[in-house]
Amino acid sequence: METEAKLTDLEGRSRRENVRIHGVKEGAGEGTASVIAIVEDLLTKSLELPSSTALNIERAHRALAPKPPNEAPPRSIVVKFSSYTVKEDVLKRAWQKKGFDFQGKRIQLVHDYAPEVSRMTWRSSEKRGNRDTTRANQGFKERLHAYRRQDT
Description:
This is LINE-1 type transposase domain containing protein 1. The chain is an alpha+beta fold. The protein has helices at about 1-15, 35-45, 85-95, 115-125; strands at about 20, 55-60, 75-80, 100, 105-110, 135-140, 145-150.
């Protein structure tokens, strides 16, 4: 058990600078060179970031799952920033806007927690009876993201 806890802790620390972006259409930005270019465009335009803000994105890719059918929700995009503070600033701006639209789709940004942490968060909110104030977003079958609304 202790080894599993250490592995979960290590995975959580490696995801510290990561964000998951839900709602970006599959194939968005087909003409661009990379997913990083799509994410930079999405964040700078939608969050109205100052031009002096350097996002310094190390990596960006779709979640590792098979491409869904056209009528299914799109896979999330995992973004790794070089800096934790930039990641937190981006998340703060996105949450202040309570989501935003990009290419006709509603976009949500969330922390990229390890699956075990997401399951623990969901279970603890159920035990406290906070199911009504906890919203779950299942990006794909293996992942469950749970987060509390701040307005309650």
